[in-house]
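#random but structural
TW: two for the price of one
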Amino acid sequence: MIQIKTISDVFTQYPNDPKSGNNVINLIAETSKGELWLATDEGVGVFSPNKNSFLLVNKLISQSQSLLSNTITSIVEDGNHNLWIGTLQGLVKLDNREPKFHKYSLDQNNKPLFGNNLVASINDNGNGIVWIGTWGSGLYRFNRNNLSTTHFDYKNTGGVLNDFVHSIYKTSWGDLIIGTRDGVVVYDENLNRIVDFFSYYRLPSQSIFQGNRIYQINEDAAGNIWFATAYGLFRFNGQRLDRIDKQGRDLMLFSSSNIRALASSRDGIVWVGTLKGLNRYSTLDGKVKQYFSSSSNLEHGILNNEIVSLCLDSRGLLWIGTVSGLSELNPATGEFKQFTERTGLPNGLIYAIEEDGWGNIWISTNRGIAKLDPESGKIFKFDIQDGLQSYEFNSGAGFKNIHGELFFGGINGLNYFYPDSIKINDFAPQMAFTSCHVYTHKGVDEVPIENLGKVEIPRDCNFFTIEFASLDFSKSGKNTYRYTLEGFDNQWIDLGVKNSVSFTNLQQGHYTLKVLGANADGVWNMNGLSIEINIKTNLWSTSLARWIYVLLTISVIVLFILYRTRGLKETRRLLRERESAIAEAQKQREELFIKNKNITDSINYAKRIQEALMPSNSFFSKIIPESFILYKPKDIVSGDFFWINETENKIFVAVVDCTGHGVPGAFMSIIGFELLRNITTVQGVDDAAEILNRLNKGVIDTFSKDDRDVYVKDGMDVSFCVIDKTVRKMQFAGAFNNMYVVRDNKIIEMKGDRFAVGLATSGNQQFSSEAIDLEQEDRLYLFTDGYVDQFGGPEGKKYKFRRFRHLLLNIHKEPMNKQKILLEESIKEWCYGYEQVDDILIMGIDTSGRLGH
């Protein structure tokens, strides 16, 4: 390329490097910036007349990271200032505009400016110095003029207490207060060092900020400094530091002590956002009003109780950032407005909120930045294509300086911008229909629709798709669309970024499809596009076919009536026979009810007999006051029973599980009552093993027959204890039942013999006993298998002994009556939704109490 200055007739050649090789120029294009773009055989040349500089770009890389040909054939700039570069391998689009957002992320050596670049807090005094706190890399003093940084971390003398710096605030008197995850410090500008908060303000040293994350620092109209922390809200008035969220030792003032965000007004109101709701605190009278999420009425609650950020705007409206979206509260009326992803937010997690000088609300989220116009409710979204440091930002990392410049920090540095410099692309995009696909039984056919105002849909098509596009290529993936189909539904339907619409099973006739499109900044082409759609008629949809359908329908109805009449006669006959059968069944049902009632009355009477034979709870408590009996029969009468007797020196207690439950078990229990009473009272036997041996013989004799070879396989599982009151010694014998002694937080299991009473017919099968000295704090537990065999829990399994022993170890130190309640609650919760499978009986004895009268 040769530049000619007509005034001086001076010729200048570009490039002027003889080593540059081929200087073939295929085309010269001037851009809106006044630059000359050259299409050469060695790449793209860019000549800036203002700077009198030349740049050759000889590497063009596609999105698939493949190197394209350097031979450039054409260069065109469109209305959105996109450059289209034609090569021998395809078309390249280059966005030649300045990004909307500026960022600080990397230094001149392409290294992170702020350690790990995870920006957690920002403060700027407007004179070119920005303080930046990070997640794990300490504190940075950043000079915007020369891009230099001064680093403060906890490893160095004069550094911060912790490298997680979550809040930075400059007070009205000029002090810079820094909140970390492990304390609060103040920057002493004279010494250029960090000083502990309590030392700087000459306060008595306290540990309230140690291990306590400082989410936000704020100053109210009276000059008080407020600290929002993970463990409470604190206020510093210049002389003393007070905790506000707690009154006395236990009374909590707010909905949670995990304080996430603060906002204060000039009328003495401090808004407190917590992990569990919003609180309005009046510094004048100390009154608190709380706000929570309300799924039933969104106009009177916040979107989510977990609050991340707060902002009180210039109109007095409070903006609440939650993990589910943004809420606007009008404190005067108490009404809420909600903004979510459905209403246009890029994401529901609201990290920081700032108001610009025009009353617009700027929001950083987990998916970019958004600008909200409170008057219209319109939302503009921005992403990494607009110059953002990343999609993801950080909680509390937002700031507006005295010049109105906004800062938002994220996971890869921070963005800064003046809101009035964010220009919206007001170019209304042209639109075009691109394709129409028709689906028939033969397959898919594409109908070209360029320059056509009409589409014919064949008879055998029940599904078709029409595609369209907004011809704005700046961010074509963010172009949005809406459509309406006149003749079917006149409602406009938003499609979002989807650029196609499908229809299925439309009735024959004529329709008009209208489509509107918008660019990435939401500027709509209100003229849009329209196309006529004609659905062809099938033979079976003609007028003649409809008349045939009517005649056939009438014929079918007449035939149905005739058939129905004959059927009704037959049905009437069957009904008479059925009524007779029902009357007979009703008579039998009444007889069965009477018999069932008589049987139930008999069983209830048997229950009263059983209860009369069984020791009462009051009788049991007189002998052993510190005890409990958990007795839950499966049926009206029970096969489980407990028994107690007392002699001068000894106490006899038994827990017995008879074969079966219900009536058979009840009969066995009555036999057991009488045999035990006879053995201990009449026969005077006081050895536990011998008592079971005689009980075994008594049961066998009861069911033995001399005249016939009849043997009844009924027995008893028994836990039997003999307690010597004088020497505090216990003897245990068991038949298929064990017992537990809880001592020193451990369970001693005393095992019984592995055969049941009444089933031990061999002469060699004699019951054995085991003795143990009782200590003061021993707890004795006798039980049947009904508790541990109960099905339940999330998987429908048995309760089992392991869970039972664990429960006893957890509750054995509780009073006996409390243990009974806990056992009942545990089995009730376990078997919720399941039927009780067996009788349940548990006896508990506290040996530290009185034993005997």
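TW: number two ↓
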Amino acid sequence: MRGAHCVVKRLRALAQQRYFTEAALAVWLFCSLSGAAAQGQTSAQGDGQHAAKYASAYNWIQSPAMPPALVAGANTITLRPCPRGLRVADPPGLVSRVAPHEYVYVAGTGEPEAALIAGGGGHAGEASCTIDVTLKQPHPAGYSAGSATGGIKEASEDAMFLAESYGGGVRRRQGGMVVLDTAGSPYKIHAPIYIEASNQLISGAGGTIDCYLLDEDCMEVGDSNANHYGSIQLEHLRFHPNMVGGTNSALYVNANATIVRDVTVLYSSTHATFGHLVTVCDDQAFTLDGLNYGGVGLRNDAKFVGSVVFAPGPFNKCSAVGWLKNMQISGQGTGNGIDWQSGNSLHVSDSVIQGFSQFGIRTGTMRGGYSPTQIDNVYMELNTPMNPAGNIGAAGIIVVGSRLSAKTEMVAVGGQPSYARTGSTHYVYWIVARDSTRGSSLPLQSGYADTNGKGNIIVSWPKINGEKINGEKINGEKTNGEKINGETISYDVLRTEGVGNALKAPYGKGDFAVATSVPQCAGEVCQATDSQVPLKTYEVTKNPSFQPILMFWPGSLILSGGAYADLVIPPVTNVSPVISTLANVPSVFADRCPRGTPGVYAVCFAGESAGNNQPRVLGTLMQNGPGSGAPDPNVKGRLNFLNSPAGNLGPSHIITLVDSDPAKTLADAIHRPSNDDKDAYIGLDVPAGGASLSQSQLAFGAPISLSNYIGNKGDGTRWKERLTASEKTFAVAVSIQKGNTLTVGEGSPLSRMKIYSTPGIAASNVAAQSCRDVTQTEPGLSKSDLITGIKPPKPLGNLSLNAYASAADTLTLHFCNPTTSSVGIPSGVYSFLSVH
């Protein structure tokens, strides 16, 4: 009854937790053994073969008599009895696929050391067995041999049982539950704990894992091949480092479908460290559900900064896929959050990542791969950046070469470095990286200074190595070992002023340059001095050809290697901008943009002005061509107001440029009320009865006037054409192309008006009281042309003059003399106006 009561009680408790279904079996096993645990946990077998195994009962130690002493090199040690869980050889009747990794700890005499058991004879639980080990040091008589893992590995081996094959072929040892009970805590670990047992559950249950390893990982799930083991679960693990300067991982995972719940690292009074808390190699269905990191136990110095969760890659070797959730990462300036370089999918949700040293999340395809990263409901916070590398700030999220999807508003917070705090003038600094073969980059915002205008300002930024991706290592070496030859990096340091949406990135030609051609830095931090003298003229290229890989850069969201982001809101503050190396094409796609992204091509579908805080609401850009060159010709527009193929047209406004009655529009349920005469719009001017799609008529409307400008931004005066309710005014010459006519009022259509000039006419006389015709050839003249506006070369005196087209290409000048004496015709060129 007491066991049944335990089950009911524990199940009720777990029913309120998220682990109920996954932990139900573990709860039953744990409760079924509670009686045995209360009596001292002296039997690892409990009441049956499949009972939970308590690690404390497996922490064996012996003083072997054979051999009396151990030598440096190969040794065979006889153990009496053979400890339970010691897998010297495969159990009777079972041939294993892979050899286990089990270690013995030799101490007592000589330098203590752990050695891998390479073979031997006998089986666990027998009266005796032998183990074969290779030692680094000799150990004189009186040595001891014991578990190198505090009994945890032995308990894991003994917990397994032969599972039913269910028609699947060979029965294999797997499963079981291991409890790291407090009776054996702290568990002193002198060699990696390999958990090589599919479908097994390891429960911390209050025990502490005390790691005495410097370079080797403390606990390893699986072995060198992730396909050997799967579905291993670990919960409530507490790791404690004991080696100063350690760069190993507390937990290393290389088995498929591993689930880790509630893992943490404990404070070390000696400031011992791990390199990383959790490292994931090739588990392509990894789940981390619950983690607590409070800024202790990870190495954090100028030479090495560890991460709480690390997926090292490269793709196709360590291609981890991860779901990380319910994490509390509060680094207090020690360590980074998540470093996911596997090139495979990452999903982070329902977590807090704050107080990191260099970055909150780094992810992407920097080591191969193609999969995106998704972030949901993640809170990120950073106060003052405490980067041990130098005054180069911190990054919220770094994405290299892949896509980030973030369905949360506070997706990333970083911090750019402050270079000076002496006054109120706000400088913003930008770095242009120049590659000797690939050209220059966009200006990359790097930091700021609040200055009084006096003295030197030291500007610092992270070194850019000119790395490449897609098969090339990030350290600047190709995968075949050949250096990327002939490339050197230099820098131009630029400066602008402005805060918030008043800040502009350097563009075009202007006074921007603090320093140019700054050589590549020897260390990881580059520097230049701004002496605050007048800036030099500098021209920013319109087509940057160098897109550097930024493994680190300060800011909220850092995009490089062609990376782009789908966001709700761009994560921008005055000291935490979005940085992108992608030039002339969008890299940020956001639902709403309350803050700007100077120098970064962002597509935002909505702006924001709460009250009057931002009268200049952010613009919406629509890409309409490639990064350079021309788009495909003769294609339909990006913005296409598409009607149904079976539909018709009606008179309507398609785009309302100025709503003359916005209150009316806002009051309408769908914000599309009837249009108004005083709206400014682009629309359709089709009959009220409608028209087919092939009979559309375009309309432009405005309440006062429609003006056309050429080479003018629009100043209200220097228009070239204007239509008002009373007149159409032209401020340019009007030309009617050949074959077209002009009709004024009810007059005749005019198709040509041209001024002609005759060849020189010779002087002659018109007799008294008579007329005389002078004929000239005029190419292009038509017989039906009307001739007017005749201008003689000199005054005609008493002569009168008319002209007409007497034939095609022929002009007749008709001179008449009404006087009683002869009058001379002036010689020279006659001009006239021909109207057709």
